């Protein structure tokens, strides 16, 4: 049997991977072996989810941020970022438009914007909860106190996305200013899980300083935390950040990692991200063929789309929500999958 296929089977059996197996999978030039890796991951996803791909409507409601992460285009030191925040009414109107398009999950994402106090967040969450009782509400607002996370949960939020970015202490230091810590970020993830959120961690592929060893630690963290969702996408430099001149992560490595995560964690909700669609026109389709089972088209008003510029050349910034929705549907159907418009909760 092919060496790569054997490694894929071992990962699946042990739901774990060794550093040497990871090295082999990330370094091999065996193209046929890679097809087998992707096929194994795809088969695993299909055994649980069939050919269904869940959709989530992403609402990027503020790009103000108090943090200064070196990779991110909306970091506070970026004076060229045109800052905006949506009102509660605007956010609800995005949801209304999304609901009509079949979305049953809304993802509210922002920078760490101090304007949005706990009371304001809870007000927004309660409003969406009351108006759209059959929808899931996902938050992605960064690091908060456990009490705050609890309040949002009680107001009706169901899920929380907080990429850990890297599970390696030294690597974390290279990506973030001194006031941020990996320890606190990980604490947030454990708190979220304990409160009862469907919780998502994740990382960028190819961020400056990332190695096979640091990726191994990311995979070990996923194994330990057992998150419900894992968001990964290539790092893409943004021209107004300290990492402007760094190299982007690759399509190939992102696909391999998607497949590995699927094999290690068969039930995980795994998006084919916008960043993956940005580095390659078929990026998201290839992501699905490598084991991803979620896509997150944008529902933000077109007037602010371009301003939520985490990285350069982000796709779909000129398209109306409906265009994005149907364009993705076509892409997905072309590769033999179909969009599922249910909430798409983690299967318990
Ligand atoms: N403030 C929230 C949301 C952050 S933006 C939080 O802290 O969780 C969402 C994700 O975009 C980040 O977690 C990061 O992994 C990703 N991101 C930021 N800059 C990026 C870049 N230059 N290339 C690719 N992904 C990036």
Descriptive notes:
This protein has 348 residues and is an alpha/beta fold. The chain has a single domain (37-340), classed as Aldolase class I (TIM Barrel, Alpha-Beta Barrel). The chain is 45% helix and 12% strand. The strands form 2 sheets. A 6-stranded parallel beta sheet has the order 2-3-4-5-6-7. α3 packs across α10 (251-264) and α5 (118-131) packs parallel to α6 (146-155). The longest helix is centred in the first third of the chain and has 19 residues, at 31-49. It is globular. The two termini are 34 Å apart. Residues 71-72, 109, 111-112, 140, 142, 162-163, 165, 204, 233, 235-236, 238, 275, 310-311 line the site of S-adenosyl-L-homocysteine (SAH).
List keywords for this structure.
single chain, 348 residues, alpha/beta, TIM Barrel, six-stranded parallel beta sheet, three-stranded parallel beta sheet, 9 strands, 45% helix, globular, binds S-adenosyl-L-homocysteine
């Amino acid at each position: 049997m092919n060496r790569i296929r054997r490694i894929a089977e071992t990962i699946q059996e042990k739901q774990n991977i060794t550093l040497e197996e990871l090295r082999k999978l990330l370094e091999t030039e065996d193209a046929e072996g890679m097809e087998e890796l992707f096929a194994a991951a795809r088969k695993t996803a299909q055994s649980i989810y069939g050919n269904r791909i869940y959709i989530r409507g992403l609402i990027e409601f503020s790009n103000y941020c108090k943090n200064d992460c070196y990779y991110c285009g909306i970091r506070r030191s970026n004076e060229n970022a045109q800052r905006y925040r949506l009102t509660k009414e605007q956010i609800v109107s995005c949801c209304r438009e999304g609901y009509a398009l079949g979305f049953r999950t809304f993802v509210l994402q922002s920078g760490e914007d101090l304007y949005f106090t706990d009371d304001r967040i809870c007000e927004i969450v309660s409003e969406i909860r009351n108006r759209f009782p059959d929808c899931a509400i996902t938050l992605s607002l960064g690091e908060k106190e456990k009490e705050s996370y609890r309040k949002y949960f009680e107001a009706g939020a169901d899920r929380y996305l907080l990429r850990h970015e890297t599970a390696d202490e030294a690597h974390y230091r290279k990506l973030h200013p001194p006031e941020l810590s990996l320890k606190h970020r990980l604490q947030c993830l454990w708190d979220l899980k304990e409160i009862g959120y469907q919780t998502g961690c994740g990382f960028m592929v190819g961020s400056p300083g990332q190695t096979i060893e640091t990726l191994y630690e990311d995979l070990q963290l996923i194994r330990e935390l057992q998150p419900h969702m894992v968001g990964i996408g290539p790092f893409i430099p943004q021209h107004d950040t300290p990492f402007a001149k760094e190299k982007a992560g690759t399509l190939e490595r992102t696909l391999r990692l998607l497949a590995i995560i699927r094999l290690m964690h068969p039930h995980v909700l795994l998006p084919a991200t916008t960043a993956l669609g940005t580095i390659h026109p078929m990026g998201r389709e290839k992501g699905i063929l490598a084991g991803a089972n979620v896509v997150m088209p944008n529902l933000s008003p077109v007037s602010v789309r371009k301003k939520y510029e985490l990285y350069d050349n982000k796709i779909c910034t000129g398209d109306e929500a409906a265009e994005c929705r149907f364009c993705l549907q076509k892409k997905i159907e072309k590769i033999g999958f179909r969009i599922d418009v249910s909430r798409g909760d983690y299967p318990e």
